Amino acid sequence: MPKAPIIQPDQSYTFSDYFKLNFAPQDILAHFKASLLRRTLTLPRYPGPLDRLHDLRSRIEESLPRLSLTSEMVRREFLIAPVLTDVLHYTQATLNVEYPVAVSDQLKGSLDYLLQNHQTFLVIEAKNENLERGFVQLAIELIALDQWIESDQKILHGAISTGNIWQFGQYDRQSRTITQDLYLYRVPADLEDLLRILVNILKQLEDA
Fold it and tell me: Where are the alpha helices (DSSP H) in 49-182?
C-alpha cells in the first residue's frame, strides 16, 4: 500500500505550518528532496576586536534576571535583536525583519530576521522555545531561500534561537543537505563565541 504523503499537494503551507507538523524532520525534508545531517559544525570565529562586546554582555546580564522569557516578544526584543544589532555594526550588513518570501504554495511566509550584505544569513526565533521543531522550520526556510535568491553562495547559513540558546544550521545547495549543529550556544555564557561566529560568517560573505 503506497505511503500517504506528509505534505498534501493541494494544500497551502506557510513556514510556520512546518513547525506544527508532527512528523520526523527527515520525512518532511524528503518531500523537498533534501536530507538531514546532524553533526558538530566547525564554525570559524572572527579574530578581530569586538569593541561592543563588554557593553552587550553587561546589558544582557543586567536585564536577564528581570525578563519573563515566556514572552516571545521579550526574547526577540531584549535578547535576539541586541545581538543582531551588534552584528550589523561589525559587518555593515543590512537587516530585514519579517521579510516576506513566496516561492510556491508550499514554500511561503515571513522570515524573522534576514541579514544581507553580498549574500544572506537567516535567523529565526524558536516558537514556544522548541528548538527541534524550530529547526525544521529553519530548514524549510533555507530551502525556500535557495530558490528565492540569486547568488553563487554554495552554503546557506542560518540559526535558530530562543534568545538565550542558539543553534546553527547550514544548507548545501548542491547536495541539498541540511546540517544541524549538535552544539548549542548559550547567552550570556557563550556570547563571545556566538558573536564571533555570526560576524565571521557575514565577513566571509562580505569578502566573497
Answer: 53-63, 72-75, 81-91, 131-148
Residue 163 contacts residue 131 (beta carbons within 8 Å): no
- Is the omega angle on the peptide bond into residue 9 within 30 degrees of 0, that is, cis? no
Query: Which amino acid, 154?
Result: K
182 vs 109: CA distance, rounded Å: 27
Look up residue 118 and give its three cell numbers: 553580498
How high is the pLDDT of residue 4?
67
Q: How far is CA 158 from CA 6, 8, 66, 183, 197, in A?
A: 25, 27, 29, 14, 11
Q: Give per-residue pLDDT as tens, 188-199.
A: 999 999 999 999
CA distances from 45 to 50, 60, 105, 157, 167 (A): 12, 21, 38, 15, 15
Angle between helices 81-91 and 191-207 (to 10 degrees): 40
pLDDT cut 90: percent of the chain above it: 80
Residue type, 120: T
As a whole number of angstroms, the distance between CA 141 and CA 153 comes to: 16
Classified as helix, coil or strand, 186 is strand
